[in-house]
Amino acid sequence: MSCTQAYARIPLGKNSRFILSCRAMHQSALLKAAAPGKQPAKNTYSPTLLLPKTPFPLRADAAKREHMFRDRCTKDLYQWQLKNNPKELFVLHDGPPYANGDVHMGHALNKILKDIIIRYKVLQGHKVHYIPGWDCHGLPIELKALESLKSTESKKMKPSDIRRVAKERALKEVEKQKADFMSWGVMGDWDNPYKTLDKGFEIRQLRVFNEMVKKGYIYRQLKPVYWSPSSQTALAESELEYNDHHLSRSVYVRFPIVEAGKALESIKRNSASPLYALIWSTTPWTLPANRAISVHNDLIYTVLDVKTKESNNETYIVAKDLVESVLAKLDAVEHNSLGEITGADLVGATYKHVLNGETMPVISAQHVTAESGTGLVHTAPGHGMEDYEACRELGILPFSPVNGEGYFTADAGKQFQGLFAFEEGNSAVIDYLKEVKGLVKEEPYKHKYPYDWRTKKPVMLRATAQWFANVGDLQQDAVKALGDVRMIPSVSSRRLEQFTLSRKEWCISRQRAWGVPIPVLYNNEDGKPLLTDTSIAHIIKMIDEKGIDSWWTENDDMLFVAPEYKTNGEKYFRGYDTMDVWFDSGTSWTLVDGLEGRSVIVTRLVMPLLRSLTQHFVETLPSLLPIFIWKEATNIAAGSNRLFAVKSKSPYSTLLTHGFLLDERGLKMSKSLGNIILPSSITKGGKDLKKNPAYGTDILRLWVASTEFTRDVSVGPNVIAQVSEVMRKVRTTVRFMLGNLSDFDSTKAAPYEQLKHVDQYMLHELNRFTDTMTEAYEAYNFNGAMQALQNFNSNALSSFYFDVVKDRLYNDTKDAMTRRTAQTVLAAIVNAYTLTLAPVACHTAEEIYEQYKSLTEQPQSSNSQWNNPTVKAEYDLLRSVKGEVNQALELARQDKTIRSSQEAVIDVYCANPSSETAAILQKYETELASLFLTSDAKINLKEAATVSKGYQRECAVVNGDNIIVTAQPAVLHKCPRCWNYHSEKDNTLCGRCASVLKI
Fold first, then answer.
1. What is the pTM for the complete model shown?
2. Do residues 748 and 821 make contact, with C-beta atoms less than 8 angstroms apart?
3. Statement: residue 202 has pLDDT above 60
4. Which of 1, 49, 239, 869 is most deeply packed, by most CB within 10 A?
């Protein structure tokens, strides 16, 4: 089992920190590294060169080869690490994806990010606990299941039958998604995933609900909630989307004042016209539910005598600040102010409802403003939360004459009964207002309006009896717990805290069959709920014994009545509300409750932090709040039953937030735009493989690692092609190293002290690189890590070290110490590469391991020994000089004096012989030719003014010292074996090659 063996041999010190994927960008020189230029067709010395040899291919052919390594680096590795890794448990709890529909790029982003994290933790030596899960209940699954049936059949189905087909649908979707997730190389316990429809999960969820009931956090109340007539259920705010172009028929309506009150009456005497309260509404269909008109105590109102082109003088009450805008709306030709009055003096007046003739009050409300309308607000406590709050304090009950399908009931009036409120009902109300002369003005009004995110149809606020969780009492504890959570990005911390404090309650009930039932019985006589620990505990016991479907299938309600209530003379019946699916996933933390170690919750599918905070509430708080009830709590206030000192922390210690998926134009992906890219089109290719090639899984994973995931993420053919090119260069790098290590005996690795200075320098850079990578990945800055790896590949390897060492690797004897020192460094780099790639391009890492298994046995030099600031500083200076040398060589090339750098010899002149620059150049003089890739290099300590030969790079400044670099054609001849100009005669071997061949 090579993969687990590889992980077993990973040193757990700093060397184990070569983590996650790579983003290697090489120069074209790396391609040349596999062969040192074009040899003569019949060069008799070619067989004597130690050219790279490896079966590791440049092209991965990933779509056909990755499956060979999948089990080893996923299923097998997961079980192995649990048994063998020595460090404490790391728990990443899977916020479950929804078991509905094909997987998309959002799934890929989320799942692969999680997998990168846990693979990194495995490399760190942690045992990792990751159980994949699925959210299986809810309306979307129910609707999809019913869509598969004939419409006539679905309408006749019993709840138990709906639950059956919905469950079948959910389980089918789970298996489809599971296959896709596994194909992405996601490591986890796939044989034992959790599903929110599992019996054990449902029982735990019901027990969490019961704990919340016992602590007084659950209540039932008749109040307005977002209601979807198209889905026929209550909705949470997270289930809404807003249409910015919704068009309403707005109306100005007048209500006759019946009792004016003392202050208003004195003004009324000045007018012979009837006095009206003038209101403005964008929802005429809510007027049958009107129960009051609201004013603000502190606003000044004007009693306005108005004459229009179409009517005689009429007297309206309007907010003083809105007089001008109202007159413009009414097309007034004359007007006169009869007096002013405060809102407080208007409170207590009454008016006649123009639709039903009832007398209603004028009340005070804080939400009234003078920003739009008339300053007098039509108030329907059954269709607005602010209206509800204003009326509740006065004992005015919510009234909603609209049924669950959105049609007016008889309570709205016979003329409206049976009409759909949003359409013909709205028109009927307006027509009737005209008939009774209540309509003053109608005009279209474009504004933002909430829609059901599933059906894409408008929703309403409608008063129904719903179950709520009291979030307000838990806010401070939740915010305190969030203070201990590491937020990535950090900006989400403050936003989530503010959002938490803005939520007072959570509507947890839904009116659908497919879900976990709210386990409550209701009294037959008055409909009051039996909300006691004894009752709920008995219901949970029965469901545990008979299965959750028994709540719908058992005929006898008394089966669910606890023994102590069967003899109290009361009769009870079951309620069939189900729990909000966010309650399902929000209690999934109970699966890891009690596990020792650090819990991390990574977001579900997409967490649109930069778009809306709604998802933070529905994804984070439902899993945060119930834990404060579930855990042990202690009363801290004498006589108080609502204050608790919670002895628990957040169920997660780190919260990562990632963004939406966008196309390459920056547009959100949607079916309507036709810009959706499926993960399978990347891994398996499209119908036309030339246009849409099969890139394989590792390219998909490398794309994820390369994204700046805390923002919205772009993907498209060009992006994926660029990632593929990165992988090609990664493989080129690895192929060069493996090819040059094919004959390397790791037991004979060179000691650090015998390494050349350039080799020590490269190990220093490697050590520094691993530290940079570790810092980046500890911060979950995967994109930063990819950039760091790209820079390391480009600046340290392909454009420098590989060019410097290939002469030794190809031309020295097989066992020469000079060659072995280079191989020792390459072995360390390839080991780092494998560790680096393992969490991201796990299949590629496994393929590399196949080629260099024996190298993992190589003892690793300690990082402290590799850390060599002196050689680092010296080589930084030498590389600066190399830059000047390259410019001199380019001058010679342009003049066609030389073609390759090997044809040249270099002279470096130091103006200050006693300078540090001169000292370092003299120290490394014997290594400069290999560093400059020339046949020879010499240091000259003389004044710059005396230099007058060759192609000069004049007066360059290096380390504060002036130097001159000259390039001249080599005097000696080209060696036919190594191609260096070291031979005394033409077409004869140089001394080094003759010694190697023992000639």
1. 0.83
2. no
3. yes
4. 239
